[in-house]
From TrEMBL:
Residue ranges crossing the lipid bilayer per the database entry: none
Family: Belongs to the cyclic nucleotide phosphodiesterase class-III family.
Protein's name in the database: 3',5'-cyclic AMP phosphodiesterase CpdA
Cited InterPro entries: Calcineurin-like_PHP, CNP_phosphodiesterase-III, GpdQ/CpdA-like, GpdQ_beta-strand, GpdQ_catalytic, Metallo-depent_PP-like
Domain Calcineurin-like phosphoesterase, residue spans: 8-202
Presence of keyword Iron: yes
CDD domains xref list: MPP_GpdQ
Keywords, comma-separated and alphabetical: Hydrolase, Iron, Metal-binding
GO terms assigned for molecular function: cyclic-nucleotide phosphodiesterase activity; metal ion binding
Pfam families: Metallophos
Lineage: Bacteria, Pseudomonadati, Pseudomonadota, Betaproteobacteria, Burkholderiales
Length: 276
């Protein structure tokens, strides 16, 4: 069997200027440093890394400069950045001029190859608002890219998930425009292996348009697991993590990886027998 293709997904980094705390309480930088170290410790080096938005906390130049410094240890691994509701498109492009795929159009959308996979990124940002939207211009672009990618395994990446999560305060700032149209489009393309999203700061999986849509945990703070419609908007320091999407030539196999250093590995067996 040929070696699988590994796409690592990080999301919702919320990097601030050095020394400044997010929400007056959390320094997100050391958490990203740990996530980057965890990615570098993976037994299988990723073929590419995608970060599905909320790269910074306020879209400021100093935040992106700090982010670039924190991501530098990833070296030459292809790295793809998507904006989230905490980002600022113009500043993002200005701060990452080498990232030419970010383009210069109205939206940050791109279609790149990761081995045999197509990674198609959608821009769900609504400037000045926390919720997401996919207008007809963005969806028309996707329709053309999906047409051009027929017969190839596709991963669609976007910040706001196109489904209800049952976390009320997050659904209030979810993808409020274009989710049904996106689902209809995805349904027409069974080669879409996954729709991968951020924004939720925790791992969620749903059936969507005949494929699987998912979100991923963040490297620092997670959104509280409270499925009451009126749940308070709050975060927690549950164990952080990221996703490893592996294409084996047949299927996309998605793992949830913990960020951090843990005990082990320890063997199950000794001299061919289970340790008693
Ligand atoms: Fe976020
Ligand atoms: Fe977000």
């Amino acid at each position: 069997m040929t070696r699988p293709t590994f796409l690592v997904q990080l999301t919702d980094l919320h990097i601030r200027e050095p020394g400044r705390l997010a929400y007056g309480r959390i320094d997100t930088a050391p958490y990203l440093r740990e996530a980057v170290a965890s990615v570098l410790r993976l037994r299988q080096a990723p073929d590419a890394i995608v970060i599905t938005g909320d790269l910074s906390d306020f879209g400021r130049e100093a935040e992106y400069a700090h982010l670039a410094e924190l991501l530098a240890p990833l070296g030459a691994t292809p790295l793809y950045l998507l904006p989230g509701n905490h980002d600022e498109r113009v500043q993002l492009r200005r701060s990452f001029p080498m990232h030419t795929y970010l383009g210069d159009g109205e939206f940050v959308q791109f279609n790149v190859a990761v081995g045999p996979l197509r990674l198609i990124a959608l821009d769900t940002v609504t400037p000045g608002a926390s919720h997401g939207s996919l207008c007809s211009r963005r969806l028309d672009w996707l329709a053309r890219e999906l047409e051009a990618s027929r017969g190839q395994p596709v991963v669609i990446a976007m910040h706001h998930p196109p489904f209800r999560t049952l976390i009320g305060h997050m659904d209030d700032i979810g993808l409020l425009e274009g989710a049904a149209e996106l689902e209809a489009l995805v349904r027409q393309h069974p080669n879409v292996e996954r729709v991968i999203c951020g924004h939720l700061h925790r791992a969620i999986d749903v059936r969507f348009g005949g494929t699987v849509a998912s979100t991923a945990p963040a490297p620092a703070h997670q959104v509280c697991l409270d499925l009451a419609p009126d749940a308070p908007s709050a975060w927690t320091l549950e164990p952080p993590g990221f996703r490893v999407h592996a294409w084996d030539g047949q299927r996309l196999v998605t793992h949830l990886a913990a960020s951090g250093v843990f005990e082990g590995p320890y063997p199950f067996h000794d001299n061919g027998a289970l340790i008693d």
